[in-house]
Amino acid sequence: MSEWNSIAVRQEGAVGIIELARPHVLNALSRQMVAEIVAAVEAFDRDETVRVIVLTGRGRAFAAGADIQEMADDDPIRLEWLNQFADWDRLSIVKTPMIAAVNGLALGGGFELALSCDLIVASATAEFGFPEVNLGVMPGAGGTQRLTKLIGPKRALEWLWTGERLSAKEAHKLGIVTRVVSPELLMEETMRLAQRLAQQPPLALRLIKEAVQKAVDYPLYEGMQFERKNFYLLFASEDQKEGMAAFLEKRKPRFQGK
């Protein structure tokens, strides 16, 4: 699509694919690139024909971090006026399932972008990390929060303080990565998973995602009340009627997202 300068966007069936396309700088995340990624994600999120979104990187990296040259001379007042992380916040309210297909490096902002997705499929050669500490700064797009919620404060602090990289195997063991596959099969396996999810009832996927996100922050009782409301809500959908009818009739359901 011609309106994108830093990414490539396409749709395959019910799967929307966003490819970070600045391989000459290992897909370093400039502010323009982040704005384009968020705009493309939101466009897919509004498109009823798109049931799953996949993010990946062109070349040797998913994204090797923020564009340091762009921010080296920034000061707190300029950053406050830029309010650049407002774009990142918009990723948190996307309802369509999002999968990161991580090839090569996912460092700093690249790691944060992967963590903003619901599932991460990683190449066996992928590496993750937050090297910001080595530049005298720290993650600012949710890295300290999302990593801590995933693996706990003590393990998160070790990686955040040292700036060391996690292998795909280590990230999988810690529960950060959901699947590790051979490099040559990364997109094939990611698309297989995406297409599998695209066959599921989309309203149920959206409300399950919402309930799981609440589980991270809510006390158990409040989380269960939220889950219950979403459970009830799905009984107003045509997909619920179709799913249960298909089960009773011993046939494959045809979900329409209605």
TrEMBL record:
Domain of life: Bacteria
Keyword Lyase included in the entry's annotation: yes
Name listed for the protein in its UniProt record: Enoyl-CoA hydratase
Any one Gene Ontology molecular-function term assigned to this protein's record: hydro-lyase activity
Keywords assigned: Lyase
InterPro entries xrefs: ClpP/crotonase-like_dom_sf, Enoyl-CoA_hyd/isom_CS, Enoyl-CoA_hydra/iso, Enoyl-CoA_hydra_C
PROSITE patterns: ENOYL_COA_HYDRATASE
Similarity annotation: Belongs to the enoyl-CoA hydratase/isomerase family.
BP terms from Gene Ontology: fatty acid beta-oxidation
Keyword field contains Transmembrane: no
Short name of one Pfam family: ECH_1
